[in-house]
């Protein structure tokens, strides 16, 4: 067999780090080299390829068109090599950093992450809760959980939960108006964060118009976690994603009066760089979280069906989706 023609590994390694950081200096810091040494190694690679891989500017370098095509394949090759090495050693180790949206972290991941940690004790799992989008090329982040629509260029994505929505409130608050039998009953109560377009979408689907001018002014609370806490405290009705509040619903802290949900296409996604799809720790986390969510979904669907059977006996006029 004819041996493959390969470039110098040191040069390829310098290119991969520089393309990921967008900086020769930061690549050198990662590799324990000087900025000049990184530049020299990349020049060797460019001479072998026959074309520049970076556009060099003061304090900044950017990939050329050839560099943009080359970088993902190089990153993937290093991830495959790392995966093969880890498999040969029979273990995963090091820090595994998850950047996650606050709502998902608070209402799902924080309660479940210990199960993943127990499966992989040699990993040091670290959560970073933020609404800011993680920058994989400059931050020490392995995977991120984002709320949004996607896609995001250069990132693999897996839908974790669809962020559909429906009104929820405290059972005690519902009792103050004699219970919630129809959507109109909700209008007898304060509606939290009425400026959120989810309210208009949900009520418009059943031909009900909300006139915000006729309703008292209320503080804007922001994210779902804050709204849910306010709803549990009896401050008003919140428009929430049921999958994020299954525990509160089952505990009776929140009441979901109607089965009908609406959606604007928003979801919570697991994302990571395309070139790192084969990293052992990313693959392990991806498989774990997708399986855990699927098992939980099946379990809660069974419980929900039992609850709806009981509710239909009390409420013979359920709200259905308009067709």
Rounded average pLDDT: 85
Number of helical elements: 11
- How would a crystallographer describe the biggest sheet? 5 strands, mixed
Q: What is the CATH topology descriptor of the largest domain?
A: D-Maltodextrin-Binding Protein, domain 2
- CATH superfamily placement of the largest domain: Periplasmic binding protein-like II
Overall structural class, as computed from helix and strand content, comes to alpha/beta
Low-confidence parts: none
Query: Can you list the strand order of the major beta sheet?
Result: 4-3-5-9-6
Cα end-to-end separation: 65 Å
Show the helix and strand layout.
Layout: H1 9-21, H2 24-31, H3 35-49, E1 54-57, E2 60-63, H4 65-89, E3 94-100, H5 102-119, E4 123-129, E5 143-148, E6 155-162, E7 166-168, H6 171-175, H7 183-186, H8 197-204, H9 224-232, E8 238-240, H10 246-250, E9 267-273, H11 280-314
Helix pairs in contact: 1-2, 1-3, 1-4, 2-3
Spell out the key features of this protein.
11 helices; 323 residues; D-Maltodextrin-Binding Protein, domain 2; Arc Repressor Mutant, subunit A; two-stranded antiparallel sheet; alpha/beta; 5-stranded mixed β-sheet; 9 strands
Concise structural overview:
With 323 residues, the chain is of the alpha/beta class. The chain contains 11 helices and 9 strands. 45% of the residues lie in helices and 15% in strands.
Q: What does this entry look like structurally?
A:
The protein has eleven helices and nine strands. The protein has 323 residues and is α/β, with parallel strands linked by helices. It has three domains: 80 residues, Orthogonal Bundle (Arc Repressor Mutant, subunit A); 110 residues, Periplasmic binding protein-like II (D-Maltodextrin-Binding Protein, domain 2), CATH 3.40.190.10; 99 residues, Periplasmic binding protein-like II (D-Maltodextrin-Binding Protein, domain 2), CATH 3.40.190. A hairpin with a 2-residue loop joins strand 1 and strand 2. The termini are far apart.
